[in-house]
Amino acid sequence: xxxxxxxxxRGLRPHPFEGWYKDISPNDESKTQIEWLLGAxxxxxxxxxxxxxxxxxxxxxxxxxxxxxDGQTAFAKPLHQGAPPLHILPQTYLTLECVxxxxxxxxxxxxxxxxxxxxxxxxxxxxxx
Length: 129
What we know:
The chain is mostly beta strands. The protein has one helix spanning 3-10, and strands at residues 13-14, 20-23, 32-39, 43-48, 52-60, 63-68, 75-79, 86-88, 93-98, 102-110, 119-120.
């Protein structure tokens, strides 16, 4: 099944930047939770969040999440089905890429943020010494 068909099947709507999503946040407003589907063409550019993030791969193909805490050094970590959540601290630079047909992630943000609340890095930015 294509990413577009999977998104339609799950009732996901277009994400403001890439992929599709559905808000599944609890009613207490202390955190934001979304289901986020990325397709083979989706690469999430480098950005920062003002919240702690936890990524869990629910279904589909693996995702590679690259992160940099200092803007100079970076490392990439693959996220596979069945793996524990990948936790990322606030203010960490990060980028994500689906390495297959599609990936369905659950993203939890604490404190709560809107899905469009992220600081984008310039298009040519990457960690460097």
